[in-house]
Automatic annotation (TrEMBL):
Record bears the keyword Nucleus: yes
Compositional bias of kind Basic and acidic residues: 208-222
Protein localization: Nucleus, Nucleolus
Protein purpose: Required for biogenesis of the 60S ribosomal subunit.
UniProt name for this protein: Ribosome biogenesis protein BRX1 homolog
Gene Ontology terms, MF aspect: rRNA binding
One GO CC term on file: nucleolus
Keyword presence, Translocase: no
Species annotation: Haemaphysalis longicornis (Bush tick)
Broad class of the protein's primary localization: nucleus
The entry's keywords: Nucleus, Ribosome biogenesis
Annotated ranges, domain Brix: 1-146
Record-stated family: Belongs to the BRX1 family.
Length: 222
């Protein structure tokens, strides 16, 4: 199970991949906490996206959070931890003294959506650089990388449970198809439906085929 620990000014970022290639990420404020555990979803690299945006190596990013991060205590904790991890430390020896890109964090569908944009020097417009990823919060712990659980996401569904629900849905559709096929065979075996004598009430003979008294039906009155 590959694991990587990244150190920042006020916290740590732990990346871990399990045997089913599920990427887990932990953000932690050291040494006293709190820390958050995420499931990383929908990762798209810069090489894969091939966006037109670009930024200089070592430049500082602006951090942009939507207003949803100020609407609940849980979201405020997320905002603070993300700020500590992704913000460039002051006077960092490997950082450049200018800003040319923006990290945006959006809280939507109980997940955190990350985007990286270049700030165009001429117009100030935003041009996406990449990468993209989604953080699905699992739990918030009181301590650093552990401790009491102070928040648990009620909307979180484990990948194994999601796969199981997809398999059950596929099995249900397969069962419905088999039952429909069996019912069709049963109806064919029973033969055609009995005829209804009322079906012939409104059937008339064409004039050219009328014979005997049937011709009186088509004779015009003078």
């Amino acid at each position: 199970m590959p694991t990587k620990l990244l150190k920042f000014k006020k916290g740590y970022l732990l990346l871990r991949e399990d045997r089913m290639n599920h990427r887990k990420r932990r953000l932690s404020n050291v040494p006293n906490g709190p820390s958050v555990k995420f499931l990383v979803e929908n990762v798209h690299t810069m090489e894969e996206l091939k966006m037109t945006g670009n930024c200089l190596k070592g430049s500082r990013p602006l951090l942009s959070f939507d207003k949803s991060f100020d609407e609940s205590p849980f979201a405020k904790v997320m905002k603070e931890l993300l700020s500590q991890v992704f913000c460039t430390p002051r006077h960092h020896p490997k950082s450049q003294p200018f800003i040319d890109h923006v990290f945006t964090f959006s809280l939507l569908d109980h997940r955190i959506w990350f985007r990286n944009y270049q700030i165009a020097e001429e117009t100030g417009a935003l041009v996406e650089i990449g990468p993209r990823f989604v953080l699905n919060p699992i739990k918030v712990f009181e301590g650093s990388f552990g401790g009491a659980v102070i928040y648990s996401n009620p909307n979180y569904v484990t990948p194994s449970a999601h796969r199981r629900s997809l398999k059950l849905a596929a099995a249900g559709k397969y069962k419905e198809r088999k039952e429909a096929k069996a019912n069709l065979k049963h109806r064919i075996a029973e033969g055609p439906a009995p005829s209804n004598p009322l079906d012939d009430i409104f059937q008339t003979v064409p004039p050219e085929k009328a014979k005997g008294k049937e011709k009186l039906l088509f004779r015009r009155k003078r």
